[in-house]
């Protein structure tokens, strides 16, 4: 029996050691291989394509962690010289590491839309809830993919396009009428709960609403949202949970929180170009798709709004009640937490050191 216990301990120790060896190191601690590309050539090629419309303020070579795919990128930090709608397309030759004899793609084109508003513009307009609109004076990070894990991308070329210009971009402008046109309707749909708001000096709580999505197989899912409006500058993490009967207030808010930075109107900010349209093709095949590179921090100006979901529940099957039941709409529980950005979350590592103070 004694020998059996010793063997079990040895097996457990060996299993623990193997797990440690197989588990990837945190992205922030992982030693990443260097990126071997000619950054100077890329900068010259991009500068030639931009034609003076944007200034390249800095650039860097970087590689993502193995956990995030291990891809190498060239990051070009550019600053627009006038407002308008622009796009940058870069193309490269793609070498398929698996189907070398008959690859699906031999060439890839990636197009990055770059809308630029006038100085002091609203960066979170109504129709761009998930994306930002850089303003004149801001810096935009353009990520150029160089290679991916066990794949080689070579021969990068750039094409810059001016789609339209805004000739009124010289001064700070207020919100456009179309940006405010939906607010009366939005406000009318909000339920104004009287709840404590520890962030009142920075974020005004406007109310909550519940959206109901019907199931094809009967039943529904209801999601409740809280809407806030930025009031004055500050840095904090916002946590919103549901006030449920019989649950202690401290347990209402979720552990997850959103880093929020409120800046004065017109403060220059650095953004990551988050969206790309991709086209891969060869002599026998072609396809298109889209890619997003989103970041966690929410940067706002006074007057801009933020809406977050904080409660969800589903009903399956036929409702036994003769009348459709109104979904439960719990009031929110709002918490202010110390400002913190998870560097390894999404593409935060590219902007975390350049957030406004």
Write up what this structure looks like:
The protein has 357 residues and is mainly β. It has two domains: 39-174 and 267-297, no CATH class; 182-264 and 301-337, no CATH class. Helices cover 12% and strands 40% of the residues. It has helices at 2-22, 39-50, 177-180, 183-188, and strands spanning 54-63, 72-80, 83-95, 107-116, 139-147, 152-166, 203-214, 219-230, 234-242, 258-262, 270-272, 275-281, 286-292, 298-300, 305-316, 332-337. The strands form four sheets. It has a five-stranded antiparallel sheet with strand order 6-3-4-12-13. It has a four-stranded mixed sheet with strand order 1-2-5-11, covered by helices on one side. A hairpin with a 4-residue loop joins strand 12 and strand 13 (286-292). It is globular, with a radius of gyration of 25 Å. Residues 1-23 have low confidence and may be disordered.
Task: Give a short synopsis of this structure.
The protein is mainly beta. Helices cover 12% and strands 40% of the residues.
Features of the shown structure:
mainly beta, four-stranded mixed beta sheet, globular, disordered N terminus, 2 domains
How many domain units? 2
Mean pLDDT: 82
Relative strand content: 35-45%
Q: Helical segment tally?
A: 4
Overall outline: globular
The largest sheet has its strands arranged as 6-3-4-12-13
User: For the terminal residues, how far apart are their CA atoms?
Assistant: 64 Å
Order of helices and strands: HHEEEEEEHHEEEEEEEEEE
Number of strands: 16
Largest sheet: 5 strands, antiparallel
**Low-pLDDT ranges:** 1-23
Any idea what the radius of gyration is? 25 Å
Fraction of helical residues: 10-25%
Structural class estimated from helices and strands: mainly beta
């Amino acid at each position: 029996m004694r020998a059996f216990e010793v063997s079990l301990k040895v097996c457990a120790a060996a299993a623990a050691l193997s797990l440690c060896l197989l588990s990837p190191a945190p992205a922030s601690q992982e030693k990443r291989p260097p990126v071997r590309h000619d950054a100077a050539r890329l900068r010259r090629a991009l500068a030639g394509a931009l034609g003076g419309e944007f200034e390249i303020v800095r650039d860097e070579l970087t590689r993502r962690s193995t956990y995030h795919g291990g891809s190498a990128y060239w990051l070009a930090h550019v600053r627009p010289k006038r407002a308008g709608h622009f796009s940058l397309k870069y193309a490269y030759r793609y070498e398929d590491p698996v189907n070398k004899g008959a690859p699906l793609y031999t060439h890839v084109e990636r197009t990055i839309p770059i809308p630029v508003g006038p100085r002091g513009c609203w960066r979170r307009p109504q129709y761009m809830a998930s994306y930002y609109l850089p303003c004149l004076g801001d810096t935009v990070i353009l990520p150029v993919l160089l290679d991916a894990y066990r794949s080689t991308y070579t021969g990068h070329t750039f094409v810059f396009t001016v789609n339209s210009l805004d000739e009124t971009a010289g001064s700070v402008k207020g919100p456009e009428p179309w940006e405010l046109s939906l607010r009366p309707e939005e406000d009318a749909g909000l339920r104004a709960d009287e709840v404590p708001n520890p962030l009142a000096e920075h974020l005004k709580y406007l109310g909550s609403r519940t959206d109901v999505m019907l199931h094809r197989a009967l039943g529904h899912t209801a999601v409740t949202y809280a809407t806030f409006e930025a009031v004055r500058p500050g840095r904090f993490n916002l946590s919103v949970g549901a006030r449920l009967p019989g649950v202690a207030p401290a347990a209402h808010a979720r552990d997850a929180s959103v880093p929020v930075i409120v800046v004065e109107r017109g403060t220059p900010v650095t953004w990551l170009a988050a969206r790309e349209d991709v086209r891969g093709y060869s002599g026998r095949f072609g396809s298109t798709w889209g890619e997003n590179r989103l970041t966690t921090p929410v940067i706002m100006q006074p007057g801009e709004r933020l809406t977050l979901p904080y409660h969800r529940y589903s009903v399956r099957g036929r409702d036994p009640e003769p009348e459709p039941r109104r979904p439960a709409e719990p009031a929110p529980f709002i918490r202010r937490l110390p400002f913190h950005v998870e560097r390894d979350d999404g593409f935060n590592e590219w902007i975390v050191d350049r957030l406004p103070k």
